[in-house]
Specification:
The chain has 69 residues and is an alpha+beta fold. It has helices spanning 15-22, 26-35, 51-61, and strands spanning 12-14, 41-43, 46-50. Strands 1-3-2 form a 3-stranded antiparallel β-sheet. Strand 2 (41-43) and strand 3 form a beta hairpin. The longest helix has 11 residues, at 51-61.
Amino acid sequence: MSREQNLDIGSFLTVSDVAARLNVSKMTVYRLVHSGEMPAVHIGHSFRINETAVAAYLAEAAVEADPSS
């Protein structure tokens, strides 16, 4: 069972690390990983998430402020 993905080699974070950086719960990070919104690598019984994947998720999720408010 081999899946090839185009991942940058760099720093990988734990689910706890990502949750702390995004100020969300670990469950939220798990939901993002399982839904495919945040790519992750499954190693043993845990996930590791590349820092560039976190940055890409944040860039895509960013919203522009409403100028009328």
